[in-house]
Write a structure and sequence with these properties.
8-stranded mixed β-sheet; 1281 residues; DUF1996; methyltransferase; single chain; WSC domain-containing protein; alpha+beta; MeTrfase_RsmB-F_NOP2_cat; 7-stranded antiparallel β-sheet
Length: 1281
């Protein structure tokens, strides 16, 4: 049985056992949306839609698109190739307060969450062509539920749309606290970061500006059909136990959630004076309130591919839908784009006098209007049990909010709305009874205030009114209750009364739960068993009581009004209690978390971290030999029929070995199937331990670990520690963190010492293994014995950033790059930066050479210093990068660019004019990471031969009884291994299949065939090559390093060769950084690239030179103690074969600045000395006998308004690979008069050639040096791939 299959079984079992919602985010690639267009094939097929939409998805989108049209698309913006659906939503505009013009707000990015809900239904893939609409395009008044979100029809009208406004500080609130929604938006009482309507404050959250949130219904009525968007969909209703179900006869499909970010923060300087007063934003349909959020979807999915994702219980979360195990169809390349032209030809960008479609602006100060912009009818929101009839939302009651007294709790319905009719743009009626709730009373002491006037909700006219859609008469009845508010006043000289204690951080317990502390939360939610259940006004008591009733062992509150349940944290980061300081909305004396801060309560008062599925599967495999004996000898499978052999291994491992026990609720059937046999299993486990001559569980654990490493050929690696010279020195760390440790002379001796002791490991019990070694290749690097027993992450040096845990091989790229801040082009780019180890290593190297980088800039004016530009396109990983940079102390000269794709960075941008070095470490297969390519043998217990098998008797090997044979059991009790890749496999792509590969970002992919492996490596190599070629374009770059943590030649030598043979490299003079020219530590590293992998790139000498320039490392027992890695350096040859300077443009007819740099205009065109006009260099022959360079300017007859060069849609000049402008067809260029510069240029050329002949030119002394061959045989040549 393959380890990958076992892992998949565990994932599926875990998801099913937890009975909870899972999700995966659909991510889009490319530089923007598919198109921005007045097209809506759902609401306005065949004609221009009423307002502008921003569209994502498949290129088959158009005015009349069907599911089949989308399925036939040539490309899609979605990462999974199998998803050719269309997703669209209204475009956001900014109304300039100064002159009233309108302009599009920059579309930042969007995600589509695919939620797979906890349900008693079978979730099915979207049928091809299914049309879904959500929201209400005509809404200009507040929704009936106020600012809160509601997706459960049984709890009142559905409210699927909100705006989220991430902010660093919520004081003042994003929405006015006393707003009734008529002239301003309303905040969500459960989440102060969200609400309805446009916020009146700036959304300045890190990498997260203003966001449109929209949920879609997930119940499909096949009786209504694919295209009846008004009646074919509804939201599911609660079925109890945290599950939601669809009506009988309806189909449960994935629950979509649009998350759309708009870069509103960028516009802040232009509307800052409006903060707290009004919003300058307008939806494309003319809505100035923000209430009319809506969105559309047409499915173009390959149904089999989506169903496979559903059936695999994919819970990839923020790693992305494209990371789901066994994804069919492949993944789109990030370096590509998918865009189309809008079929409606009109001006939609720039400064506009009116909105596209001529929609009037309505709502709030502009008046309600007619709901402008056309738009779509809202979808049904609550189907009855057996009929597709659905109800529109109810009209809101008049607000009871007042400015001074505290507002009463939000209105809640006492009964469900009765369905009346569908559609109607939100103007339908409900027959509904709603009661307001009295405000909680406060105790007055000396001077009670007189009660304020009673507040009542008005009674609408009880006369029946005709329904505009059905023509029926309905009666709306409102009941009111008097709401009294009292004020507590303290006066006089007496002591203030002691308030009655309530549960808070200062309390030891809430019920049976104890306070565990304040913990950092994230967008992925660290406590995710149940997220934000609708419990009304939240307090710690309310949240804990609810979570306990659902069988969870942990509960957490956040943002003053959110509740989260679970059993463990996905990430444990304890923070100061002061960050959990928001008052609970349901209990004034309590504190319910804070912004991304969770007040956590658990049954034990301690925190349990969630184990990764991969780690659990791996550990279970290690113990399977022992556990097989336990299961068979106990007769477990003969008694518990629900248990399969794989499940029995997993559950007995958790029960007998894991410190945290079985990670299932106590009432869960699978857990009970183990615990019923507690005594017998424990007894058999003890016997198994004694048979192995182990006197304790700790001794058995060490023996199992040693056998695992030996059987899998896993080498013991040291723990590598890089001393961060921005904050400390090696000497300082030897006298503090490693004081008293034994210093060994070599890494091999350190590993030899650890290896000889691993079988009888005594980790942490004495100082025997407190040994280190100072590395001889990388400065400031220390190897620490893996048996030291010291958790370095808990040391002061680690927490303060003085030491950084970084594998030795990971230090190669920055060290090989050898950046020099004192050079003319001293800036550095780290193209793929997160998590930040290499970025901070670069910073350390730069600061060692220029200590002024650490200056705070006080006193004398600082001179110009180098900068590091760190790019990370994944915004979540970018947060880790920024944290790493701050801890390391390099924030003063490191510019973090979150969410920026390096491939979209313009090399000619003025900001990067001084970039002289680039470090490229792109995503790769991760095949070199320690432990990724091996797995232990898996031993499965045999099922009982028959139902009468007695307990304690070993089961037969055939499984011949009535019990069905487990599909994952091999039937003959043979053990199997997860396939590993040999060197020949790497070369030929013929690895054992199926296999599991995990890339360096931790994303898992199951490969089913050799073709899948080849395709995966090919796709990665294409992206890696694009990144390298893009780096070649930076005009002043002189050094580049390219690295991967892969051992495949396809990602390594082959990419290097392709890059060197590209036209960009040839024109720019890029060469391999020869071994002789590398820094000492890298020059002396004896494991080089594969000559065989470089064959075919030229002659044998060239192949060997390139291979020698490449640096490799392998995860082997070779005494080096590093992971598999590859790095190659590139340098720009400053002289071409004819002697002409290829970089230092120190001559010629162009105007230069004080530093000798050519003066260019905004498009990068050089300025001509003789005319002062733009120049275009067509030919520069450097031969002595040739004429001088011919420089051309546009002839007057061909110089159109925008010049003679081809331009793109945004007016930018289109350039070739080297950045030179492209001439328009038919344009004529005339030769410029440069006679004065010709003679000077010729004279300088002759002088340079004479210098070169004497050995003093750009050839340099290094060209005379020969690399000494020490005669050592390169044992790695045969494993070059």
């Amino acid at each position: 049985m393959l380890f990958a299959t076992f892992l998949a079984t565990l994932i599926a079992t875990a998801a099913a056992a937890k009975d909870k919602r899972t999700f995966a985010v659909l991510r889009h690639y490319g530089k923007g949306p598919l198109t921005t267009c007045r097209a809506d094939p759902i609401v306005s097929p065949g004609t221009a839609s009423a307002h502008l939409h921003t569209v994502m998805g498949a290129s088959g989108f158009g005015l009349n698109s069907t599911g089949q049209d989308l399925a036939n698309s040539k490309c899609t913006t979605a990462k999974p190739k199998a998803d050719k659906s269309a997703y669209w939503f209204p475009t956001l505009f900014f109304k300039d307060p100064k002159d009233g013009h309108l302009e599009q707000v920059n579309f930042f990015y969007s995600n589509v969450y695919y939620f797979f809900e906890a349900t008693n239904d079978d979730i099915k893939a979207f049928p091809l062509g299914l049309q879904i609409f959500s929201g209400n395009a005509g809404l200009r008044t507040p929704p009936p539920g106020g600012g809160r979100q509601n997706l459960d029809p049984s709890k009142g009208p559905v409210q699927p749309a909100q705006i989220t406004c991430p902010r660093g500080n919520f004081n003042p609130p994003s929405w006015p606290a006393n707003s009734d929604g008529t002239m301003a938006g309303m905040g969500d009482p459960n989440n102060q970061g969200s609400g309805v309507g446009f916020p009146f404050q700036d959304c300045d959250g890190y990498a997260s500006p203003m966001r449109m949130d929209l949920h879609f219904p997930s119940c499909y009525n096949p009786a209504a059909g694919l295209t009846d968007y008004k009646n074919n969909m509804a939201f599911p209703s609660s079925a109890g136990n945290g599950k939601v179900d669809c009506p009988k006869g309806w189909i449960h499909v994935p629950h979509l959630f649009f998350e759309v970010y708009w870069d509103t923060h960028k516009l802040l300087p232009r509307y800052q004076h409006l903060l707290g007063k009004e919003s300058p934003f307008v939806w494309a349909n003319g809505d100035a309130t923000g209430y009319s959020i809506h969105g559309d979807f047409i499915s173009g999915w390959d149904e089999k591919a989506l169903q496979q994702i559903i059936d695999s219980n994919c819970d990839a979360g923020h790693a992305g839908l494209h990371s789901c195990p066994g994804l069919m169809g492949g993944v789109n390349d990030d370096s590509e784009d998918c865009t189309i032209e809008c079929p409606i030809q009109e001006t939609v960008s720039g400064n506009l006098a009116k909105l596209p479609g001529n929609n009037p602006i309505t709502g709030w100060k502009y008046g309600a209007g007619s709901g402008g912009g056309g738009g779509s009818n809202p979808p049904p929101v609550m189907p009855p049990a057996d009929t597709p009839t659905v109800a529109p939302p109810a009209p809101p009651p008049t607000s009871t909010f007042k400015a001074d007294p505290p507002p009463p709790p939000p209105v809640k319905p006492t009964s469900s709305a009765a369905p009346i009719g569908g559609g109607g743009g939100g103007d339908g009626d409900y027959h509904e009874t709603i009661k307001s709730v009295p405000a909680p009373q406060a105790t007055s002491t000396e001077a009670p205030a007189p009660p304020p006037p009673a507040v009542e909700t008005p009674k609408p006219n009880p006369e029946p009114t005709p329904n505009p859609v059905e023509g029926k008469k309905t009666t709306t009845v409102w009941e009111t209750e008097t709401v009294w508010a009292t004020t507590t006043i303290f006066g006089g000289k007496g002591p203030k009364p002691t308030p009655k204690p309530s549960p808070s951080q200062d309390s030891d317990a809430v019920g049976d739960f104890k306070y565990a502390g304040c913990y950092r939360d994230s967008e992925a939610r660290v406590l995710s068993g149940e997220i934000r259940p609708n419990l009304g006004r939240i307090s710690n008591t309310v949240c804990v009581k609810y979570c306990a009733s659902k069988g969870f062992s942990a509960a957490g509150t956040e943002y003053g009004g959110q509740c989260y349940c679970g059993d463990s944290l996905s990430k444990v980061e304890k923070i100061a209690d002061s960050e959990c300081s928001m008052t609970c909305e349901g209990a004034g004396g309590e504190k319910c978390g804070g912004g991304w801060a969770l007040s956590l309560y658990t049954k034990t008062g301690t925190v349990k971290a969630k184990r990764s599925v991969y780690a659990l599967a791996l550990e279970s495999c290690k113990w399977s030999g022992v556990l097989k004996e336990v299961v068979e000898n106990s007769g477990l499978l003969g008694v518990e029929r629900k248990l399969t052999p794989p499940l029995s291994i997993l559950l007995t491992h958790d029960f007998l070995v894991s410190k945290s026990g079985i990670a299932l609720p106590a009432s869960h059937g699978l857990r009970q199937s183990i615990e019923r046999h507690k005594a017998r299993l424990t007894s058999e486990f003890t016997r198994a331990r004694l048979r192995r001559n182990c006197t304790s569980l700790a001794e058995l654990r060490s023996k199992i670990e040693h056998e695992y490493r030996t059987s899998c050929g896993i080498t013991i690696h040291p723990r590598w520690v890089r001393v961060n010279t921005l904050k400390s020195t090696v000497d300082e760390q030897l006298e503090s963190t490693f004081k008293g440790w034994e210093v060994l002379p070599s890494v091999s001796e350190l590993l030899s010492s650890a290896s000889s002791s691993s079988a009888e490991r005594t980790e942490g019990k004495d100082n025997r293994h407190k040994k280190i070694c100072l590395d001889g290749n990388i400065p400031n690097l220390i190897a620490v014995s893996p048996l030291s027993g010291v958790d370095l992450t808990k040391t002061e040096a680690y927490k303060s950033g003085k030491i950084i845990l970084q594998d030795k091989a990971s230090c190669f790229p920055a060290y090989l790059l050898d950046p020099h801040p004192d050079s003319e082009a001293g800036d550095v780019i780290d193209a793929c930066s997160a998590p930040g180890n290499k970025t901070t290593h670069l910073a350390s190297i730069l600061a060692e050479r220029d200590p002024s980088l650490l200056s705070k800039g006080k006193g004398e004016k600082r001179r110009k210093t180098s900068k590091i530009f760190a790019f990370e396109k994944d915004r979540f990983r970018a947060k880790t990068l920024e944290k790493m940079v701050n801890i390391a102390g390099s924030e003063g000269f490191t510019v973090v660019n979150p969410g920026v794709d390096f491939l979209r960075v313009d090399p000619f941008d003025e900001r990067y004019k001084d970039v002289g070095a680039l470090l490229l470490d792109p995503s790769c297969s991760g095949s070199g990471i320690v432990g990724r390519d091996v797995a232990p043998e898996l031993f499965l217990p045999s099922p009982p031969a028959s139902s009468s098998s007695s307990a304690g008797k070993k089961g037969g090997g055939g499984g011949a009884g009535k019990r069905k044979r487990d599909p994952l059991d091999n039937g003959n009790n043979e053990t199997t291994k997860k396939p590993t890749l040999s060197s020949q496999d790497h070369q030929q792509g013929s690895s054992s299949i199926p296999m599991e590969i995990i890339d360096d970002d931790g994303n898992s992919t199951t490969l089913q065939s050799p073709q899948d492996l080849k395709a995966r490596i090919s796709a990665l190599a294409t992206f890696q090559l694009d990144l390298l070629l893009h780096a070649f374009k930076f005009p002043r770059a002189k050094r580049i390093t390219y690295s991967t943590c892969s051992i495949y030649a396809g990602e390594n030598e082959h990419v290097v060769i392709a890059a060197l043979h590209s036209e960009i490299a040839k024109q720019g003079g890029w060469k391999i950084l020869k071994r002789a020219d590398q820094v000492r530590g890298m020059r002396e590293w004896d494991v080089r690239g594969s000559v065989e992998a470089c064959e075919g790139c030229g002659g044998e000498e060239e192949a060997r030179e390139i291979a020698e320039g490449c640096i490799r490392a392998y995860n082997r027992d070779d005494g080096r103690g590093v992971m598999g890695f590859f790095v190659a350096g590139f340098v720009r040859d400053t002289t071409t074969t004819d002697g002409k300077s290829g970089v230092d443009e120190d001559e010629g007819p162009y105007v230069r600045d004080d530093l000798g740099r050519i003066v260019r205009d905004g498009n990068g065109i050089p300025t001509l000395k003789s005319t002062g006009g733009k120049a275009f260099e067509m030919n520069d022959d450097d031969d002595d006998d040739s004429s001088s360079a011919e420089v051309y300017v546009a002839a007057e007859s061909t110089a159109a308004e925008d010049g003679p060069f081809v331009r793109d849609e945004e007016g930018r000049i289109v350039r070739d690979a080297m950045g030179m402008p492209t001439l328009k067809e038919g344009a004529v260029l005339k030769k410029a008069d440069i006679h004065e510069g010709e003679e000077k240029k010729k004279g300088k050329k002759k002088k340079k050639k004479n210098n070169k002949k004497k050995g003093t030119g750009n050839g340099g002394e290094n060209n005379k040096d020969e690399v000494e061959d020490d005669g050592a045989e390169d044992e790695w040549d045969g494993f070059g791939d």
